[in-house]
Structures are given as structure tokens and as C-alpha cells.
Amino acid sequence: MPVLKVHTPKAVRLQEGAYWLADALIIGVVCVVGFGLLYFFDISNAPFVAEVPISTGLRELPGYALLSLTRSLIALAISYVFAILYGTIAARDPRYERVMIPMLDVLQSLPVLTFLPGLVLTLMHLFPGSRWGLEIACVLMIFTGQVWNLVFAYYESQRSMSPELQEFARLTRLTGRQRFLVLDLPNGIRPLVYNGMMSMAGGWFFLTLCEAFVLGKANYRLPGLGSYLGVTFEAGAYGSFAAGLAALFVIIVGVDFLLWKPLIAWVSQFRDVSEGEAGTMPRSLFLDLLKRTRLQRAVTDAINELVSFLAQRMERIAHKSRKPSGTSLVATPMGIVIRGKASLLGQARRNTRTMQTWIQWIVSFSIGAVVFYLLPKLPEIAAGLASVKSDDWLELTNALLMTALKVAGVLVIATLWTVPVGLWIGQRRRVATWAEPIIQNIAAFPAPVLYPLIVFSVAKFGMPAGVVAMLLMTIGNQWYMLFNVLSGASRISPDLKAVARIYRFSPWQKLTKFYIPAIFPSLVTGWISAAGGSWNASIVAEMVSYPGGSLRAPGIGGEISRATAEGNFPRLVAAVIVITIALVVINRSLWRTLHEHVEKVK
Question: Which residues are CB-contacts of 553 (< 8 A; sequence separation ≥ 6)?
Fold first, then answer.
């Protein structure tokens, strides 16, 4: 009897293959992330060893790379939570804003080594006998390289929210939670995603420093890609070093494909229609695969079933506890909404007061804990500072001025090329579609990893150490400027462009009267971020060791690195005091003036 053959159309077969490919890719990503977390917890629970032996072989490289990626992702998750909380509080309450934003300017500019010694010693004391102290310190150091840019981005998104949206929140009497979910978070999600790429790059920036650092006579080291790159370069195993760089590049490209491109394509739905034409929406192959996967549907259905079950249970509870006064509790997936005599506006005010009370308690408790922790150490700190001579204070002040000149040079060099390039790319959506991913991957690569190789290459040219250090700082921090200029240029209204065409502005008039004022708020944000990153990068740019020599450029970053390596804590504390005072002065004079001018421009 002949067998009837059913021919499946080619399009259907391709679609089924896409389903299987999407499911396999999702399962693979989940397995990699899960294995990374398990490996991270296993390493953290291991007995404490200050200097973990790092193998230079290629067999251990995948595990090291996975550990570094896990630390970076954990720090990024913490950074997002902190940025949303900090930015929301600062944007909503002017009393907190007057303190929190200047403090943020100072914290983002302080070199990471100013936090490292005290943090490591404290956490090692809290977690004796295991590596949790060093692991938490490493994650928090990566966090300090990621979080400041995110906080500024979210804060600026809340401050620049259109008056129409704010009026909408008042007229509809949104509660604090509803305003956050419906208005604040959608308004700030795009800056969070776009700046998240640069923030993660900032975490990779100090990869080798966070995973392998010297504190006095102790050499603390954790297994990871950063320590692997440092050890292989010092040992002259250049083949393994190149393999480590390749692994780092694969991680950066993979994270861009699996995380940032899908997020960018997703958050594009939150943009204003005036920001771009239809058809120019970014696409993500991985996001398209996610939409095809059957696992995503299964998870979504399970979550919906769970939410429906909880909503029904809450509705029954609310029905049983209904108050006779006319006030009713209605359960929804978002929680319990109070209806009746208690108005939504009154509930929102009570929620706001409750949140402010909790914030005050948390802030007061945190400050009190820090004060009581430092109080017994004040005599020791005072005795150490008393041992710092007047000549040392003068040397540190001179070193501060040298680094300040380098930071100013970084801003000048970065501005000269990022403004024209950023305007050119930002005004051309098609160019930006293929140019931005390339720029993002280049910017995500941690420049300090290549510092020894760059210094080793230029050493034969006899360039001054200060110039080399300034160029190293520029390589790592010019991207803050470019991304902010791109962001400002992409938001220029088409109406303003039409005005420039109608009045036939010359190229110089367009630049000075149109483009620069339009991107000036973003340009100021880029200056602040690049300056903060440059102050931070000075610790690795002013003191670089390479096979056969070293770079020692005068500057406060080199002084901090040298004091940390030598275990000279009095000089380290003195250097931190000097740079903190300088940053407060710069913040209260230069950056505050520019912020006021930005408000006028807006």
C-alpha cells in the first residue's frame, strides 16, 4: 500500500527551526548564567587565601572569564537598583537634592583606591575564614565604576520630564507607586539602558585592579579574567595574554548581543515619535528569537496564572475584611487599592510621608553606623595625619595640580573630536544604526588592560610621562563625551532643524546658535562624567609597570597608588583629603555654574 507523503512548506520548516534555535539559545544562556552563579558562590565559600595562585594555562581561562562576567553582572544589578532609588529621591525632594547631587559629583571623581583599603579590611574582618570579604569588596569596587553614570542619567531623566507628563500625574492623582511604574520608570528606562553600556564598561575598566591589588605587604588576588591578564603579562606569557584579550572581546560582544541590543530594541518603544522616523527602530536578532521561543510563552503563562491566583486570594481577603464605614479594599495585580472615603490623593500623600520616614531612618542609621565604626579609629587616624609633614602636603598639592591639568587636557581633546563626530552621526539615523554598535563595543573594552602594552610600545619614542598619562586617560574616558553628544544630537527637534533651514543659517551659525545650545545639557553631563572618569583613571594611568620598565607620571593618582602599594596609610589619607577638598571646590564652582547655565538654556 503506498505511503502518503506530506510535504511541509519550506517557510514552516524554517519557522519550526527558528523555534528550536530560540529554545536552545535561551536554555544555553540560562545554563551559563546559572553555572556562573554556582561557581561564584563556590569560590566565595572556599577558605580564605590572600594570594590565590593563578594558572597561565588556557584550560582555566573559561572559568576565569565566567567569574569576572558574573561579578560584573551582579554589580550591574546592584547599580541599577541604587541608581533608581538614589535618582528618585534626589529628583523628588529638593532638600535631599541639595546634598545628594554634590555628594554624587565628589564620589564619582574619587579614585577607586580611596575606597579599597578600608573596604577590604572591614569586609575581611566581617567574613573571617572565607573569601566572601574579598569577593564582596571586588563586586563593590566594580559597582563604584558603574553606578555614578547610571545615577546621573536617571536623575536627569526625572528632572527633565516634560511639564505635560507631570501635570498628567497630578490630574490623575497617581499614587507614589503608580507614578513610578507608569511615569517615572518608563521616562527613565532609555537613559538607564543606553548609559548601562558605558557603566558596564566602567566596571570592566578596573578589572585587573579589582581582582588583583596590593595593600602594603599583602597581595590580594581573586581568580578571574583581570588577574589572569595581569599575571600572564607580568610573566611574559604573551600567547596566554592574547587569549585572555580575545576572551574579553568575546564576552563584550556576547553581552552586547544577548543583553544590550535586545534592551535597546525594547526601550525604543518609549521614545518620543519626534525623535526618529518610523522604520528606523533598532532591531535585535536575539529579541526576535525570544519572541519566537515557546519557553517565553510558557513562563509568561505561568506568571499570569500566578498573578491571577494571588489576585483572587487577595480579593477574597479584602471581601472578608471589608469595613462598614464605606471604605473598601480592592485587590489588583498591582496590590491593594483603597477606595471609598479615603481618596487616592490622600493615600498618595500618606505613602510619600511613609517613604520619606523610612528614608530618613535608613540614612540616619547608615550615617550613625559609619560614625560609630570610625569613632574608635579617630585617635589612630589623627596620629597618622600628624606624622604627615608640611613638605608632604605641599607635594600632594602639586601632584593634585598636575592631575588637574591632565583632566583639563582630556576634556579639551575629547571635546574637539566628539562634538563634530557626535553631531554628524547623531543627525543621520542610518549612519547611527551601524556606527553606534561599533562605538559601543570599542568603548566597552577596558582600556587599562592595554595600558602596559601601550606604554611599552611608546617608551622608545621618549615622550614625557605626563603626556603619555594624559593620552592614556583620554583613551579610556573620551567615550563618555561621545555617547552624551550622540544622545543630545539624536533628541534635537525636527522643528528646530526646519527653523535653521528656513533662515538659511551658515555652518558656523548652526554650530554656535543651534547645535551647541541644543546639545549643551548633554555636553555638560559628558564633561562631568569624563572628568570624573579621568580623576578615577589617574591611579592606573600615572603609575604603569611593563616588562623592562615603568611609567611614573607626577600626579595625585600616582601618589594614591604608591601610598596604597607601600601601605603608607597616613599619606594615603592625606592624599584622599587633598583630592576630596579639590573636588568639592570644583563641584561648587565650575560644575554648579554650568548646571545653572544648563537650566537657562533649557
Answer: 402, 465, 466, 468, 469, 541, 542, 543
List residues bridging with 543 in a β-sheet: 552
- What are the grid coordinates assigned to 52, written together? 590565590
Please calculate the CA angle 96-102-105 and round it to the nearest 5 degrees: 130
Helices 132-159, 185-205: axis angle to 10 degrees equals 140
Strands 212-215 and 218-221: antiparallel
91 neighbors 160 (Cβ within 8 angstroms): no
Question: CA dihedral in degrees (494, 496, 502, 505; nearest 10)?
Answer: -120
Q: Are 555 and 131 in contact (CB under 8 A)?
A: no
Measured CA to CA, the distance from residue 26 to residue 290 in angstroms comes to 8
pLDDT tens digits, residue range 217-258?
677 788 888 888 888 888 888 888 899 989 988 998 888 888
| Site of grid cell 541590543 | 261
The alpha carbon dihedral of 506, 509, 515, 518 has a sign of negative
With cell 570624573, the residue in question is 532
The answer to whether the CB of 66 falls within 8 A of the CB of 31 is no
For 14-61, write each residue's pLDDT tens digit: 444 556 776 777 788 888 888 888 888 888 888 877 677 888 888 889
Burial class from Cβ neighbours inside 10 Å (0-12, 13-18, 19+) for residue 236 reads exposed
Among 295, 201, 188, which Cα is nearest to 252's? Answer: 201
Kindly report the pTM of this predicted structure: 0.75
Q: CA torsion angle for 225, 229, 235, 238 (degrees, to 10)? A: 120
Provide the pairing of β-strand 328-332 with 218-221. Answer: unpaired
Cell of 426: 547623531
Burial tier of 124 (Cβ tally within 10 Å: 0-12, 13-18, 19+): buried
DSSP string, 249-314: HHHHHHHIIIIIHHHHHHHGGGS-GGGS-TT-----HHHHHHHH-HHHHHHHHHHHHHHHHHHHHH
DSSP β-bridge partners for residue 337: 330
Asked whether 61 and 247 are in contact (CB, 8 A), the reply is yes
